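seq as requested:
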Amino acid sequence: MSAIGTLTTHHVGVNVTDLERSLAFYADVLGFEVIGRGAKEESGYAFLGRDGRLVIALWQQAEGVYDSGRPGLHHLAFEAESIEHVRAAEAALTARGTTFAYEGVVAHQEGAAAGGIFFHDPDGTRLEISVPKGAEAAPAPSGTAPACGFF
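struct tokens:
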């Protein structure tokens, strides 16, 4: 074990261009609860979570759209309880007009039981909702390469 002990992810901070639009997406569509929010001059922020536990911090301090070609966040992945929950999320996101990287649920790679949906938030940040099993019958968009790696 390292001298600093075992680390776990506490939360992820995401820069957004429009806090209200992003709150509508992350809270209303994805179901995160707002557990705090505030403002500083022209910028705002919101803390989102589940059962009072912080998961995502939204920071309104960006311009433009997400650029997958720049260093930094590749994608943000959420694990669902079941493949049925992934499909319910897909339906909710489709009804909202969300942009998907692949059509429907896909396997993480050929022959994998793990899989999910891959899509973009209002600023283009890449997101995933997946499960470790239940996607056995789904196609694999990238053959043996991970589906989450190249969208």
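The chain has two helices and eight strands.
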